[in-house]
Amino acid sequence: MNLGRVDTIIKEVESSIKKPRKVNKDEKLYVGVDLGTAYIVIVVLDDKKRPVACEMQFAQVVRDGLVVDFIGATKIVKELKRKIEDKIGIELTKAAIAVPPGTDERDIKTHSYVVEGAGMEVISVEDEPTAANAVLQIDNGVVVDVGGGTTGLSIFKDGKVIYTADEATGGTQLSLVIAGAYKIPFEEAEEKKKSTKNQEEIFHMVTPVIQKVASIINTHIKAFNVDKIYLVGGTCCLKNFEKVIQKETGIETIKPLNPFLVTPLGIAINCADKQ
């Protein structure tokens, strides 16, 4: 994996949040919709797979990969879609989505219905770690997506997925620990977790949760010859998260500068690849 390449394109996605790129009216656009436990994110790419725009919103309409508030989720996706369309002057009509590994067909359809209800045709569905690898482009190793509600992983061999798994541990558990320690509301704990000035302070109290994530990884990779772990997902943004995973697993662990946007970007790339 070329980490410099990954970090560069992620920075371009970050820049597109405040400053979307201008595109031609007839240009084909590719949309990735990430319905996360903590955030809903939309990333738009142009016909050369370069970032055009990105919008996101904190939301608690999905729990452990399942849509628990269909109307709320649809409303948020519709609003994010409208914001992007207003900025770039082009209607978004087709999108790709991703779900945690092992999500059953009924729940996949619910994710699709949310995006369709917002006015876009769903043309591709991937599991989240596999979608992330459209950005990482690894041939061998395990991609671990630590989201708000779950930890999902895909093991790759010679560029192909040979195993996937998903378990319910993620950023929500970190926030609950923080909320309990400081006796503050969950939403306030979420903000405290994201603030860079608090990361040293909260790191030790949430280390047991990170160790639990490492335990999940160890359980699922023990039958495979895995020599590198690649971390993505918003929960991994916590400073030194990767060091705990590497210590607990004994395997080299790699994390992009901003792991939060890797999966949404990968979903958009999958949209391009399926058209």
Structure description:
There is one protein chain. With about 280 residues, this protein is of the alpha/beta class. The chain is built from 9 helices and 12 strands. A 5-stranded mixed β-sheet has the order 3-2-1-6-7, with helices on both faces. A 5-stranded mixed β-sheet has the order 10-9-8-11-12, with helices on both faces. A hairpin with a 5-residue loop joins strand 2 (about 40-45) and strand 3 (about 50-60). Helix 2 crosses helix 3 (about 105-115). The two termini are about 25 Å apart. The model has no long low-confidence stretch (mean pLDDT about 95).
Tell me the distance between the termini.
25 Å
Average pLDDT rating: 93
Q: How many beta strands in the DSSP annotation?
A: 12
Question: How many distinct helices?
Answer: 9
Described by the principal axes of the CA atoms, the overall outline is globular
- Tell me the strand order in the biggest sheet: 3-2-1-6-7
Calculate Rg over CA atoms: 18 Å
Alpha-beta classification: alpha/beta
How would you sum up the major sheet?
5 strands, mixed
